[in-house]
């Protein structure tokens, strides 16, 4: 006879009578025979010295373990490292030391640990050896045995199921139940309510700034002041795990102790995720949950194992952006297909939300936001061969989100939200082609912000973008110079005339030397510089420069180009009455020319009508000027709102025409409103505000 055996099977052959007794313990069951050394003490890493903040959460949880209360199930959910286990530990200590309950602690990170831990709970609560053996061998439902014992416990209890990041494990076998004899607390990264029917969910987030600073001071009191600790806490996003590791590092330095300032400087040097993780206990097991560089890798590995690679891809894409609110509309674009199919983006985002790797926030725009330490950790662990595709896709998404041809308009909150993500991508990207593409987006974004009146964001975006790219592209790269020119334009609108003049002069000199006087970028910088010179009172220099811009733009762009017409319209505000009269045939027909070439609603056409009304005022044609500027004021208010800078400039001219026509009270009232609005939007000391306040004073003195 022939026979064969596989795995743990055996083949016996005999020539006579044999009597064989065997006792079999198969491998899969042997693995679960063991259990945790204790369920009466929390199996956690470094326990918090003092639990900071969380007072409101703990108060509610502590009430649930008072007296004979029971039946409640609480789920503490949040991103990895936010301190869910620390809150559960504090509750455990309170329940066992002050409320007289027995505490039971089970690691629910995987099936084996959960099963072994829960059977150990059953043993603790009086289950017999035969019952436990039957449960281990699959002859009796293990979960039923555990909860039978818990339901009949002579003492009230608190059961903590820690690290339950895979709710399917709890659902299979119905391990999570409630009992009138005790309170159950679950810690998890899974936030979706569908996993926790009947439970009360409690989000655990990052710490407030003062409490985060105090954590560092608790752990390393000799390393620095609270102010220094607060600065480091901000750098670490106030994440409890990162704070604990940083404090541990500072407190354990012996030969060369670091101050908090020194630690902060090293955080800014580069590989700061590795620096933080050096604060882990050297002799303890390298549990990924206790290291910021590895804790989120657990989720990425789980995505791959469960056939959800798109979730990992989306998280790696988010890590190319900033830890700031990211408009959801940015992710709902066909350009995302470079990283994951657009049709799968919804599912991938839901998975990230469910695992507390991002959250939804509403800042007037629906956004997703992820923690900075998480994003930096994911970015640091992203395979290098994936970075070019991720950066290119991120650049294309931003490019699609920023208007291709920014126009003047009311404040747009989404534009400001895009700025930190554009700058973050510039900081991450390493390929020159991608850097150029993103810098192009940054320049266009600065223009768009400028034209909505958000001059500070426009300056910050352009200034930071050039600082980030000068080294990689070169200080005299065309895009770098053009973007720095936009920074100068924004400085002018912020009232920082001296800085604006210096910056624009330097940029213009470089552009003239490299590209020539009539290059489009040179002419654009020159147009911005003449605005500064005019407001500094250097009229002749400004007028000469503006005339050269008009001539250059006519030659390069053509007479009907919007930029040419804009510069020609600017002449209307610069010329005296005699000069206007001498050029009346060409200049006073500008509104009609703009209507013809651009249309009556074009921004340049409205600006030409505005400047035309000023020219009429200068010529002493007050009635015509008044009629013209009233129409412009109404058009600006309808399109931009009453606080828009150009709308206020038009209203100021309307006040002048009203006062000149003898409607003094109307003129004063209009100027009072202009001054109030400029003080709110630009500030009390802005040159535009000061000029408006002086004009109001003149009106009041003459009425």
UniProtKB/TrEMBL annotation:
A GO term, aspect molecular function: ADP binding
Gene3D superfamilies: P-loop containing nucleotide triphosphate hydrolases, Tetratricopeptide repeat domain
InterPro entries (UniProt xref): NLR-like (IPR053137), P-loop_NTPase (IPR027417), TPR-like_helical_dom_sf (IPR011990)
Domain of life, per lineage: Bacteria
Pfam families membership: TPR_12
Protein name (database record): ATP/GTP-binding protein
Organism of origin: Streptomyces bingchenggensis (strain BCW-1)
